[in-house]
Amino acid sequence: MRDAIAAEWWKLCSVRSTRWVLAIVAAFVVLLLALAFQEAQIFDGLAPGRREKLALRPLQEMSPWVTGLCMAVTGVLTATSEYRSGTIRSSLVAVPRRSRLPAAKAVVVTAVSLAAGEAATLGTFLGSRLVIGDRPFVDQRAPLPHDLPGFGVEAVSVPVFALLGLALGLLLRSAAAAITAVVLLWHVLPLLVFHLPAPWNERLGSVMLGGLGPRAAGHSVENSIYGGALPPWGAAALMLAYALLPLVVAVSVFARRDA
Amino acid sequence: MIEVRELTKRYGGTAAVDGLSFQVRPGTVTGFLGPNGAGKSTTMRILLGLAAATSGEALVNGGRYAELRRPMLEVGALLDASAVHGGRRAFDHLGWLARSNGIGRRRVAEVLERVGLAGAARRRVGGFSLGMRQRLGIAAALLGDPGVLLFDEPVNGLDPDGVRWIRELMRGLAAEGRTVLVSSHLMSEMELTADRLVIVGRGRLIADTSVRELAERFGRGVLVRSPRPAELTGVLSAAGGSVEDDAGGALTVAGLDVADIGERAAAHGIPLYEVRPRSASLEEAYMELTAGSAEFEAAIS
Predict the structure, then answer these.
(1) Given a cut of 90, is residue A225 above it in pLDDT?
(2) Do the chains contact at A94 and B101, CB–CB below 8 Å?
(3) Model ipTM?
(4) Residue A191 vs residues A28, A36, A142: alpha-carbon distances, Å
(5) What is the C-alpha separation between B53 and A258, in angstroms, rounded?
(6) Where are the beta strands (DSSP E) in B108-255?
(7) Which residues of A touch B70 (CB under 8 A)?
(8) Residues B40-69, buried b or exposed e (16+ Cβ, 10 A)?
């Protein structure tokens, strides 16, 4: 298994798409910090009473959300690029035990996306704090050690998206189909659910993957399209299910399919 | 050693491989011949555990491929040379393959050297010509220094230099005592490369033979040229041969061998200009054997 993981790591590092996706994540973090700078300027221009209504957190929370999409694409590509190029046969000739190959992919994808997710999320949080300096934004008054763990937990949604992407890639074998499916789950479905009649919008909105990260971190999802019906531990358990169940299904289909 | 026993693979109602059995022994190049769609690639994919057999078994060194712990150390395979990620560099392509089987980087450099790609190691595979990809695929097969090698249509699309290089490589590998199975739909190529032939058509075994046996089986009498053909015909017919007049004044004699013909002609003082056993070319033999087994036959009008 260690050899298979090392081989998957080599594969991921030796294609350009991985670097492109990580560059996009980094560029997005820079963009968010620029927007934080902009908000700081706005903050300075506001009357004291209106400053209480200017929040920075929605900006900070965009980081794990967008990184989740980027790493889901990486997860998709680790599977579909092998089908597109035909490398899947070489991979299975090298690692013939059927569950071992996707398991090795899952380990590598989890590690890379967790690292990218934590780096982007914590980087955005700490960077934006640095950018605003000592301006007392209403949602930034808690000391760093108080807020930091929450963002650390929220970033865990990134590998969940990545594993979901991997599972969809293995199942659908087409990058176009799998990325479309990821985007549907990432944002289109939650938007549709939000427009359902109450109480279904709240109920179904609570189980949408995009809202589970903030919920698991104990952050409020008010004023978002997501529902907050789940307690943090419930949201965490559901995230785990999102990561593992599709993967288990994908691996069992993969194990029975001729390559 | 490769053993295929009663192997069957069905896709829906059609059998791609139908009760196929044969063995491939070490120290020889065995040609796996058949028209397109005869089941050669399917058989190889089952041997490598890529596809599951409907029934029967395909064993490598007495076991199933999927159960090998480090399969590349025992079996090397070239399936489809174009099936590589174009964005990866040649060294990286071989690198991850080697890593997956616990093979070191030094060996990667060695096989690149052996197939003549050392200078292109840092280039992306997407820019490789078909011949270079074929060499890269062969380098991958050689990585684990395996005793069993499978090559699926390795000379497809290669230039004459490339074809000769692969031919010599395979003969060299067999001479080192390895088991080499090479599939092809070209008899002319196998005639030069293979010692033994496993010929299949429509998923079934047509012949399991050596190149020489096949040539003998398709012998076509003796060609004789003489300035006195009418007289010679009389003499040979009297000796029990059946003689046919060929176009161009030559005779084709069946039932007598070269020595018989020479002695009888000498006894009657008939000069001979040419006496030569005639065999069908292996190409003809192959066409005859596989007639009717091509998957898509052109309608001849």
Answers:
(1) no
(2) yes
(3) 0.89
(4) 22, 26, 31
(5) 10
(6) 148-152, 179-184, 196-201, 204-210, 219-225, 242-245, 251-254
(7) 3
(8) bbbbbbbbbbbbebeebebebbeeebeebe
Angle between helices A209-216 and A232-256 (to 10 degrees): 140
**B95–A contact, CB cutoff 8 A:** yes
> Can you say whether residue B168 is alpha, beta or left, with left for phi > 0 and alpha for psi between -120 and 50 degrees?
alpha
CB B10 within 8 A of CB B54: yes
- Distance, CA of A197 to CA of A240 (rounded, Å): 28
What is the residue extent of each domain of chain A? 2-256
The CATH code of the domain at B2-209 is 3.40.50.300
- Determine whether the interchain pair B80/A86 forms a contact, defined as Cβ–Cβ distance below 8 Å: yes
∠ Cα A12 B119 B95 (to 5°) = 25
pLDDT digits (tens, 9 = 90+) for A17-59: 999 999 999 999 999 999 999 999 999 998 888 888 888 988 9
pLDDT at A32: 97
Q: What is the pLDDT of residue B301?
A: 42
Under CATH, what is the fold of the domain B219-279?
Alpha-Beta Plaits (3.30.70)
* Distance of residue B69 Cα from the nearest chain A Cα, in angstroms: 9
Question: For position B300, what pLDDT does the model report?
Answer: 47
